[in-house]
Amino acid sequence: MTDPPVNKIVIFAVSGLESEMLTRVRLDIDRIFYCQTEITPLSDDLTYALDPARNQYLSASILDRLITLAPGHVVKAIAIVEVDLFIPILTHVYGEAQMGGKACIVSTYRLGEGVSLASETYFHRVAKETIHELGHTFNLRHCPSKACIMHYCRTLNDVDRRPDELCRYCKVLLDDEIERLAKQSRLSSANGNNINRISGIKKNVSQSLPP
Ligand SMILES: [Zn+2]
Ligand SMILES: [Zn+2]
């Protein structure tokens, strides 16, 4: 039996998403997380997550669904949807992630505000939010540095100003987490279980911490 693909992240995408945008997102995921991606269509019918009173979609419900939909060989799963997402304590969210878990989600609903949906700025926003939410699934928390993609953003101005790179400190944390996942994967592989394999990942991380 051949081994399943390694270092894979699945992107669940609803039907209306631009292929150019998906290409950008895939390149950025490879650049930051050293992971290949595969695209799987996500049903446009998300009514199971709809809160009729708010006319918004509960992101946690979609995350739960993603876990059941994600193929066993992928390390992470991200959904990119077009509906307006919320969590109960906030009016809306651009995305949500399971900290250190498998699934995260990004909504394009508000990311196009004030710009053309064909613009570089819009694509950039979607790609940045995708990296940010995936970063949480790799156990990265919000970073105090404004020069880091893990910095918390409340507004689109914040998103536009935030760079699409991890700071050196978060890069080290990501490297540690990838190392941990690789070790875990080798262990389960040794036990005859190839699920969630993550191996052969490129190392590209500065070992020194910022002052
Ligand atoms: Zn965040
Ligand atoms: Zn950082």
UniProtKB/TrEMBL annotation:
<keyword id="KW-0645">Protease</keyword>
<dbReference type="Pfam" id="PF07998">
    <property type="entry name" value="Peptidase_M54"/>
</dbReference>
<dbReference type="InterPro" id="IPR024079">
    <property type="entry name" value="MetalloPept_cat_dom_sf"/>
</dbReference>
<dbReference type="InterPro" id="IPR012962">
    <property type="entry name" value="Pept_M54_archaemetzincn"/>
</dbReference>
<keyword id="KW-0482">Metalloprotease</keyword>
<dbReference type="InterPro" id="IPR012091">
    <property type="entry name" value="Pept_M54_archaemetzncn_arc/bac"/>
</dbReference>
<protein>
    <recommendedName>
        <fullName>Peptidase M54</fullName>
    </recommendedName>
</protein>
<keyword id="KW-0862">Zinc</keyword>
<dbReference type="GO" id="GO:0008270">
    <property type="term" value="F:zinc ion binding"/>
</dbReference>
<dbReference type="GO" id="GO:0006508">
    <property type="term" value="P:proteolysis"/>
</dbReference>
<dbReference type="GO" id="GO:0008237">
    <property type="term" value="F:metallopeptidase activity"/>
</dbReference>
<keyword id="KW-0479">Metal-binding</keyword>
<keyword id="KW-0378">Hydrolase</keyword>
